[in-house]
Amino acid sequence: MSKSIVITCGDPAGCGPYITLKSLENIDLPGAGFVVVGDKAVLDKIPVSSRVLSKLEIIDCRTPGIRRLKKGRATELSGRASLDYLDTALDLVSKAKIPALATAPLSKEAVQMVLPGFRGHTEYLADFFGTKKISMLMASPRLNTVLLTRHIPLAEVPRSLSLKLITDTVDLIYDFFKKRYKISRPKLAITGFNPHAGKDTFLGQEERIIARAVARCKNKLSGPFPSDTLFVPQRLKQFDCIICCYHDQAMIPFKLLSFSDGVNVTVGLPVLRTSPAHGTAFDAVRRRAPLEISSMQAALKYAFKYGYAKK
After folding, report:
1. Which CATH superfamily is domain 142-260 in?
2. Which of 245, 271, 283, 288 is the most buried (most CB within 10 A)?
């Protein structure tokens, strides 16, 4: 019996439908079964569709007006479709108890035209499952990093950092690496918020909170470390995962090191959700430029490997 991975096509006006089918065209995952949620009318226009769709289970959402879709643009139609794909997939994984979900990129701007206040996959999934403690892990063979705060303005980060947020995140990630990665004592590091991790001149309230969290977490967490020296190869070898205070502090080094095979993982849900480490690529779609599939393939492989790992 195959182990299913449910895949959403993301925004149908973006790269999602293409990278979904192209990733599945020659992927080598013995024992895996794939359920693709999207619009068949969109998928049928992709050159490899005739070779790939026959090997998959397709859930056709038949979005009204989808044939009028404008490629490479965030529109209310594409936002409605991508949200419907996601809702349909979540209903399936929850009812059928499928532990692996991979989501192609959607456009926050497009979804917000239908659902004002939408912040992204991570928060939407947490709301759906009623999960209060979640983390956004960016994973690759070279670097694993976690975002303490995600899609909020940088000015709001200092007041969002709290002892509870840090300790809850550490406990969640520590247990995840023990159970999924089979590491008996994961080595976690945390960055400082201010320059030089607040040492000497720049010591701020943020570093004091982080230092209290490090003391509270005992042997689970080291730091705070200056982020400008933590992401060099010799330092990365010392840790299994680095916890960062804000979005760009994590994402800039991660994408420099792992753009082609990085995976976005939502930790803390009853299912393992993965996604490629990039967005909808609207600009590339408009220019009909080549679209990378390596990160989507990595997301599928990660979902299969760790979604069905014995815990």
Report:
1. Isopropylmalate Dehydrogenase (3.40.718.10)
2. 245
Locate all alpha helices (DSSP H) within 197-293, ordered by sequence: 205-216, 227-230, 233-236, 247-258, 282-287
Strand ranges of the sheet holding 100-103, from the earlier edge strand across to the other edge? 57-60, 32-38, 3-8, 100-103, 272-276, 263-267, 135-139, 144-147, 241-244, 188-191, 221-225
Helix (H) or strand (E) holding 4: strand 3-8
Say which CATH superfamily domain 1-132+270-311 falls into. Answer: Isopropylmalate Dehydrogenase (3.40.718.10)
Classified as helix, coil or strand, 272 is strand
Residue 192 CA to chain centroid, in angstroms?
A: 23
Q: What is the pTM of this model?
A: 0.93
The answer for 223, left when phi > 0, alpha when psi is -120 to 50, beta otherwise, is left
Query: Half-sphere exposure (CA, 13 Å, Cβ side) for 269?
Result: 29
Domains 1-132+270-311 and 142-260 share a fold: yes
Amino acid, res. 66:
I
The Cα–Cα gap between 58 and 34 comes to 9
Enumerate the domain spans of the chain. 1-132+270-311, 142-260
Per-residue pLDDT reduced to its tens digit, 124-147? 999 999 999 999 999 999 999 999
What residues in the chain have per-residue pLDDT under 50? 1
